[in-house]
Design goal:
Length: about 400
């Protein structure tokens, strides 16, 4: 019962707007953490289907027990715990949580009805994309209007479990030699565009060479900075990473180029994570807390030949990893992100040297934050030329990310 109490508490916090990762941090290391995560993430991932099922099962829904019913239906649907035990345990838990015995009878009746009519109820979920792919309607509608050719591939790509990408530190070990280490450790992998995805999530303690800085955990969709720079013959010397935490892109750049890098982030505590990653990988950079919407930086009085703007965004490309986004993000948030993104890139443009580059990156799948911002850049930033635009669609192997490389020509 203690586990159900914790799951209910976490879900209620997330449903009232708290950030899932921050809430989960408080439960790190507890006895039954894997099962706690399985239930919490599972319920949030299947939220839209669960809401539909409860609406179908109860004529007079009772908000007080909604979370208990979410947990119960999710377990009856997916877990290997025997059905009778799921129902008994949740009815007991309801009795402990509410004095009124009618509430426990209500939970009992709903869970038993689901058990009885499970097959036909589940088949109804396919009639609607929101319940089939477990995404909010505003998001599906927006994608359908702005990206008709890709929208089905995006919504289905967001419905998998998150992939486990890793990035090999070229300064420490060659890709081919690291692959041999995986084989020796019996860790299954796939190579996609020269990037490694493990077949299953792996604890970092078990990842060969992690503590020696040979490898980092990073979604492969987030590993395209170096591919783009290489194919456009850009080899940076002075780099500003203006929204740098936790440092995935900054570390990848330092692993591949001999350059000076200034890592800025507005969040002091997140910048500490950049430092931790640099130390583990035996890399170095200058770190500064700062605001990319209005501050200017230079490196020994020089402008930067590469400025990375991996801007705050809707993070809709990472919904598999951060499923609470589909509950908390609203249509009206998108315009605010776009405004902030334009403020940041406008400010950062003056940090780019003549003939230097701005790399604009989001982990969003929405045109407003991606292609539309590139159109805005071309129209508003003096002497800007688009060199390459790359939309990585979410898939079984990766999150969805967007990249644009823009050159400041010497006008
Ligand atoms: C998408 S994350 C960056 C991920 C990072 N580049 C990486 O590869 O690991 C966006 C970051 O922007 C930071 N941020 C948000 N607003 C900012 C601002 N006005 N100035 C600087 N950093 C900001 C956030 O704290 C967050 O760490």
């Amino acid at each position: 019962m203690k586990l159900y109490k914790q799951v209910k508490e976490i879900l209620e916090l997330v449903y009232s707007g708290s950030n899932l990762n921050l809430v989960m941090d408080q439960y790190k290391g507890i006895e039954d953490e894997p099962r706690l995560k399985y239930l919490v993430y599972g319920v949030i991932r299947y939220n839209f289907a669960l809401e539909y099922l409860i609406r179908k099962l109860s004529k007079h829904p009772n908000d007080k027990v909604q979370t208990i019913l979410f947990i119960g239906i999710f377990e009856l649907w997916f877990s290997n715990k025997p059905n009778y035990a799921v129902v008994n345990d949740l009815v007991e838990f309801t009795k402990e949580s509410f004095e009124n015995p009618k509430i426990a009878s209500f939970v009992n009746a709903i869970l038993r009805s689901f058990q009885r009519d499970k097959e036909s109820l589940l088949s109804e979920l396919n009639k609607d994309y929101s319940t089939k792919f477990n995404l909010p309607n505003w998001f599906i509608d927006k994608l359908k209007i702005s990206d008709k050719p890709n929208y089905l591939s995006i919504i289905s790509g967001l419905s998998y479990h998150p992939a486990f990408g890793i990035r090999v530190n070229q300064r420490k070990i060659k890709l081919v030699d690291y692959v041999s280490k995986l084989v020796n450790a019996n860790i299954e992998y796939e190579l996609i565009n020269n990037k490694l995805v493990l077949s299953e999530a792996c604890a970092i303690e078990k990842l060969p060479g992690f503590f020696d800085g040979e490898v980092s955990v990073q979604d492969i969709g987030a590993q395209y900075v170096v591919d783009i720079l290489t194919r456009n013959n850009v080899s940076p010397k002075f780099v500003l990473d203006a929204c740098s935490a936790p440092g995935g892109k900054a570390c990848q750049i330092l692993e591949n180029y001999d350059c000076d890098l200034l890592a800025v982030d507005i969040a002091h505590e997140r910048l500490a994570k950049v430092k931790q990653n640099l130390d583990r990988l035996n890399l170095s950079a200058q770190l500064i807390v700062g605001d990319a919407t209005n501050q200017k930086w230079n490196k020994d009085h020089q402008m930067f030949d590469l400025v990375i703007a991996d801007v705050p965004c809707s993070a809709t490309g990472t919904i598999k990893r951060n499923p609470d986004i589909k509950l908390t993000r609203k249509l009206s948030d998108i315009d605010n992100f776009v405004m902030q993104q334009r403020e940041i890139i406008n400010n950062l443009w003056s940090n780019v040297s003549n003939d230097g580059y701005l790399m604009y990156i989001t982990c969003s799948v929405l045109h407003d934050e991606n292609q539309d911002n590139v159109t805005w850049i071309k129209a508003n930033l003096a002497n800007s030329i688009l060199i390459e635009e790359l939309q990585i669609l979410p898939s079984l192997h990766n999150d969805g990310l967007f990249y644009a490389l823009i050159k400041k020509h010497n006008g």
